[in-house]
Amino acid sequence: MAAHTKFEEIKHTNEIGQEYWSARELFEVLEYIKWDKFLNVINKAKQACQNSEQQPDDHFPRVEKLVEIGSGAKRDIGDIRLSRYACYLIVQNADPSKEVVAMGQTYFAIQTRKQEVLEENFGKLQSEDEKRLFLRKEMAEHNKHLADAAKKAGVIQPWEYAVFQNHGYMGLYNGLGAKEIHTKKGLKKSQNILDHMGSTELAANLFRATQTEEKLKRENIKGKQKANRTHYEVGQKVRQTITELGGTMPEDLPTEESVKRIDTEHKKLNKKNK
Asked: Which of 122, 155, 173 corresponds to the end of one domain?
């Protein structure tokens, strides 16, 4: 198994969609034998975090980890939920003679920079139209990745993928499939649902797609039914998060004009400016 795949497989997502890594799991992937020695590496990473004027508690929070010690009793050995930045600092301070550490340095450096670029680019957007266009393009790209992950899980035929996608919508839209969403949004059958979403609704669907892709890969899910159920459950989880944050349900968000028109106008404007 490629080292970067190992780092992907131990990635987790918390209840509000933030990704994290378990220090106990990273300890094993980086091929350390003694936990105390790995803690020394973590402490160096914490110091580097503080030196960069970041709060270590934000990137290295301690959590409970219970293990059985016999007769049904359990003991808390402790764990640390590491942010991507924390993992980056750890591999920078880990044993460089290990090949897996070198792979980790590359993986976390690339992933950290990709996220920074994404956040920087989105942060520069001013208007709702610009945000919609940006998120719609991200959605198109991640739907390709989701299709690849679904195919590896056993969703092969086009009609099977349509069913798979429908399960994701039903989870997120409280049981509404693509057909029902079209009707509720007042869209024609030929119109793509995603093209008529605002930035808030697109962001929710982008989160659904990326988290389903990662879950399919991480848990090595096989079989159409399991893949469909996974997509549905992730959609439900995203909906639950929106509820907890007091947001508007996606089916109740307004229908927007096609983002394709915005894209066409942007291209014309860019051509004119050139």
From this structure: 122
